Amino acid sequence: MAANTAENFPELKNDLMLRAARGEKTERVPVWVMRQAGRYLEEFRAMRAENEFFKVCQTPELACEVTLQPIRRFQLDAAIIFSDILVVPQALGMTVEMIPGKGPSFPEPLKLPEDLSKLDKDVDVNKTLGYVFDAITLTRHKLEGKVPLIGFSGAPWTLMCYMIEGGGSESMSKPKQWLYKYEEASHQLLNILTKVIIDYLVGQVIAGAQLLQVFESHAGHLCARTFNTFALPYLSIIARQVEEKVRAQGKEPVPMIIFAKGAHYAIEDLAQSGYEVVGLDWTVNPKTARHQTQGKVTLQGNMDPGALYASKEEIRTIVREMLEQFGTQQHIANLGHGIYPTIDPDHVEAFVDAVHSISEEINLDSKKKN
Ligand SMILES: Cc1c2[nH]c(c1CCC(=O)O)Cc1[nH]c(c(CCC(=O)O)c1C)Cc1[nH]c(c(CCC(=O)O)c1C)Cc1[nH]c(c(CCC(=O)O)c1C)C2
């Protein structure tokens, strides 16, 4: 079977994630882990010792291998393609370096509105991001249908943060300054990003992605007013236009997940923004979120990643509490943000196994009662 054609993919053996994302009944809660491929795995560190970060992202065989590493280790219910959200600023013509021990760095961030003229606005995603599509197609074949494959992108505001701040930041004060000083230029940049993100996500579905996640990882730097002005409208446009453009290409739309970290004030709005799944960070009370969303969407999350430092027994206790708060239907278990590089992989296994065994037990108990 040709491993480079986005057709004749192996039959899916485990569709739990897809059923949960669509709000259908599930016999146990599916689970995956944000940043499940990464530095906490020695096999990832070995790969990175030999290969620069963006070389791994840009070489389909390497990105595929890294994507499969956690799938070989744990009974996860989904794989997520190994890439990074910062490939989109690269496609717009910006230079992004990964500084060891520091993280991403933009040598020439956007400083003033006139810098927008430097961006390659009319991005052909097949030319500039085709390597991600190739990685997705290859990985779909190599997964052999074991679990579905998630594609992803950063959201417009979160990418705008990096493009202006020039890297990670506690305050993201420079992009926040744009929102208050250069409102029109901010919307211009957010529109440029929205357009390329839509094409990028559609390309991932055509290449074989079976779910999509949009990471609005820096929503926590916004307030309700700025979120409703500079984030939510663009998130909604992305969800609706990705579905429309996938259909226009004769393909079946895939479930979409929105993860807006820190946007506890916006859960109700996010549940009506066109996404099937709303991801919650660890600060949100699952019962409150369930009440706010009224069964309209599936919820994803939200164990504190720090809980993976607890003992395996304590992890089981925390997982049980989390599952009882969410209820075992319309729930995809995950952490409330990405896993930390110093987590013990054995504790990830304990987390995954606890979600499966305890959610099965709760489901069986509720069957006996009814
Ligand atoms: C989902 C994801 C991302 N990057 C990576 C993954 C893992 C994919 C997978 O598990 O297969 C690999 C991924 N991306 C990176 C790494 C570490 C690279 C290394 O040192 O080996 C990995 C494994 C580099 C990176 N890339 C980024 C950071 C954070 C910088 C900061 O704000 O301080 C970092 C450290 C930007 C980034 N990148 C991403 C996000 C959204 C997810 C989140 O919020 O955690 C963000 C904010 C997306």
Give the helix/strand layout:
Elements: H1 16-21, H2 42-50, H3 53-58, H4 60-73, E1 79-80, H5 87-91, E2 97-99, E3 103-105, H6 125-128, H7 130-143, E4 149-154, H8 156-165, H9 173-181, H10 183-207, E5 211-215, H11 224-230, H12 232-248, E6 256-259, H13 267-270, E7 277-279, H14 286-293, E8 298-303, H15 312-326, E9 331-335, H16 345-369
Parallel strand pairs: 1-4, 4-5, 5-6, 6-7, 7-8, 8-9
Antiparallel strand pairs: 2-3
Helix pairs in contact: 4-7, 7-10, 8-9, 8-10, 10-12, 15-16
Bound molecules: coproporphyrinogen I.
Coproporphyrinogen I binds near residues 215 and 337.
Key words describing this protein structure:
binds coproporphyrinogen I; two-stranded antiparallel sheet; globular; alpha/beta; 370 residues; seven-stranded parallel sheet; single chain
Could you describe the 3D structure shown?
With 370 residues, the chain is of the alpha/beta class. Helices cover 48% and strands 10% of the residues. It is built from 16 helices and nine strands. It has helices spanning 16-21, 42-50, 53-58, 60-73, 87-91, 125-128, 130-143, 156-165, 173-181, 183-207, 224-230, 232-248, 267-270, 286-293, 312-326, 345-369; strands spanning 79-80, 97-99, 103-105, 149-154, 211-215, 256-259, 277-279, 298-303, 331-335. A seven-stranded parallel beta sheet has the order 1-4-5-6-7-8-9. Strands 2-3 form a two-stranded antiparallel ribbon. Helix 7 (130-143) packs parallel to helix 10, helix 8 (156-165) crosses helix 9 and helix 10 runs parallel beside helix 12. The chain is globular and about 65 Å long. Bound molecules: coproporphyrinogen I. Coproporphyrinogen I (1CP) is lined by residues 35-39, 48, 53, 67, 80, 82, 84-86, 98, 103-104, 152, 168, 215, 217, 337-338. Coproporphyrinogen I binds next to strand 3.
